[in-house]
From TrEMBL:
<keyword id="KW-0067">ATP-binding</keyword>
<dbReference type="GO" id="GO:0005524">
    <property type="term" value="F:ATP binding"/>
</dbReference>
<protein>
    <recommendedName>
        <fullName>Clp1 P-loop domain-containing protein</fullName>
    </recommendedName>
</protein>
<dbReference type="InterPro" id="IPR027417">
    <property type="entry name" value="P-loop_NTPase"/>
</dbReference>
<dbReference type="InterPro" id="IPR032319">
    <property type="entry name" value="CLP1_P"/>
</dbReference>
<dbReference type="Pfam" id="PF16575">
    <property type="entry name" value="CLP1_P"/>
</dbReference>
<dbReference type="GO" id="GO:0005634">
    <property type="term" value="C:nucleus"/>
</dbReference>
<keyword id="KW-0547">Nucleotide-binding</keyword>
<dbReference type="GO" id="GO:0051731">
    <property type="term" value="F:polynucleotide 5'-hydroxyl-kinase activity"/>
</dbReference>
<feature type="domain" description="Clp1 P-loop">
    <location>
        <begin position="38"/>
        <end position="152"/>
    </location>
</feature>
<dbReference type="GO" id="GO:0000448">
    <property type="term" value="P:cleavage in ITS2 between 5.8S rRNA and LSU-rRNA of tricistronic rRNA transcript (SSU-rRNA, 5.8S rRNA, LSU-rRNA)"/>
</dbReference>
<dbReference type="InterPro" id="IPR045116">
    <property type="entry name" value="Clp1/Grc3"/>
</dbReference>
Amino acid sequence: MAGASPSARAEVVVPPGWAAATATASSEPAPPVVVVCGPKNAGKSTFSRLLLNSLLPRYGRVGYLDTDVGQPEFSPPGCLSFHVVDEALTDLLNPTLRECQRCCFFGDISSKRDPETYLNCLFHLYDYFVENYRSGASEPLPLIVNTPGWIRISAQSKNLPDGMFWLDCGQTGPNMINIDAPFHDALNRSLLIQKDSYGMRERRLIEYFKQCFSSDISLTTNKELAYALTSLPPYEVSISDVMVPPSEVRGCVSPYMPTNVLHRISERDINT
């Protein structure tokens, strides 16, 4: 695929390295857990779709943990989600909305502002997968983990270090397969293709909110969708139906809280 122009290709051409990697993962004796990582615009999502399709004939169902909050595969932007997919993806070039098993709303398109909350969401979803589809399951599922492209570890480096850099000396790690981006320049170097991330997120949100309406309703512009959404009655939850465990209640002091409220808060409430 050296020298090929991405815009000139309408069909999906699988590089030999990608085909070999999917064949290796699909032939593992036990259902594999595959973490797909790399820089932005390297083809992680496309490879994940290809891998999912290659695992389905053997296992029938495949777990998919999407941790890319900026450009998720099956959910709206700003979310981490876990899915169980039981049918092949017919479009390997574009993401599609799918119903999830579990979803965590993170509220940002990058994890860098709140990595702790991001990791808590990730661990929650992975624990759910292990508990329900791995530990003690009669038919354990394979898992694909799609990761974000924000992997910069320093101002000088835009990619991950080579090898299993996260292991200490003497530790053994998983099977690691290096694959190149699908396109190359004239010097046969991996070529990262820039995508319209903003436009992709906007289209994904539009498709997400269109699910509120019947498929026979034509909504072709953002303005039509906005008018249609404002016509829907708001979702209401009675305050009496909201249950908060006592252990989850914490006292806090806001800098915008009026003084006539501050003096009513005891020191014990603030420190709990």
